Each structure stands twice: as structure tokens, then as C-alpha cells.
Amino acid sequence: MKGKGIFIxxxxxxxxxxxxxxxxxxxxxxxxxxxxxxxxxECGGNEDSLAIFAASxxxxxxxxxxxxxxxxxxxxxxxxxxxxxxxxxxxxxxAAFETLANRHEFVIVEGAGGWFVPLDxxxxxxxxxVALDLPVILVAANRLGVLxxxxxxxxAIGGSGLLxxxxxxxxxxxxxxxxxxxxxxxxxxxxxxxxxxxxxFDGLVALL
Length: 208
Known about the structure:
Helix content is 40%, strand content 20%. The radius of gyration is 16 Å and the shape is globular. It has helices at 17-30, 47-55, 65-68, 79-82, 90-103, 125-132, 146-159, 180-190, 201-206, and strands at residues 5-10, 35-38, 41-43, 71-73, 106-114, 136-141, 164-170, 195-197.
């Protein structure tokens, strides 16, 4: 491990961030690393947070759901639409992260939606990632359109002043078209400074 944690973001909602996050936590824990996860903000229930809580060892690891998910909003909307301005307290989230980081070896923080999803009338998920000051892993669905979405998001992460340590092309089901056969090679040529990884969790662990 090269630090106390990593921030998992996605090119969009529904690209498999939680699936990748939970698989990564489970793999690390099986290898003897005391890794836990965190979903700072979740909207529309706590399904993702519960999955992360379970993958992290739950109460047996000394966790509570509130530690894993400090801000839970009931409506399945972007946080900016589901809460009042400035309701999301970055200080509270940072404190929750520090508590986990002090008690555990490694913390995997999963964002909500994409990089610039609005949290309120001024701040985005990118601002929260900056507040936590963690390197970033980008999850993208390996399908038609991923080239544009990935390049835009990698550029935005760099523009926020954070390091994008890798791009994980997620494809848990068979591809519906031919684009996944070429996406990896194209992205690696365009982004030689970033590790582009297919469905290889050993490769992902090596970036942490």
C-alpha cells in the first residue's frame, strides 16, 4: 500500500463502482490487508453502503453503517437535488475517514455518480475528493462511448489537482458489441502515464 487510502470514482453512475469497490476490499482482506470501505454520500437508500459494510467485515471489524456512510439521503437523485445547500459537511466526512484510517490499514472511498456530480449549489464530488486528498482510481464501463467518457474524466481529475493512478475497464457481463476489444489498447496509447486495467484485480491491487 502506498498510502492510507484511495478514492474510487466513475465516468458515470451505473458503471460498477460498488461492484469493483467491494471486490477490491474482499481481495485485500483475503490477502491479509486490513482494508475497509467508505461511501461518504449515498442517495436513494443505502444498498451500496450495506454492500461495502459487509465486504469490510461489518461489526466484526468494529464498523458501524454510519462510519461507512456518514451522509445518507433518501431520494434517488443527485445530492444537490436531494439535500439543502451546504447540508453535506465535508468536515464530518473527513473526520469519519480519519477515524477509519486510524483504525485500519487501508480505506477505499467510493464516490457517488461521476466526478462532477453536484453535492450542493457550489460543490461537486471532485471537491470532496480534493478535501480527502486521495489518489484516484477511475472505473469505466467497457462499452461503446467509454473512450470519450474516460478521457474527459481523466482530464477533470488532473484538473482538480489529484493523481489518477489507474483506469479500470469494468465488464462483468459479455460485451454487446465489438468496442470492448479495442478500448483498452486505444486508451493505453492515449494515456501512457496511466495504467489501464481490464478485469484484473491483481493488477488493480498493484496500483494501491
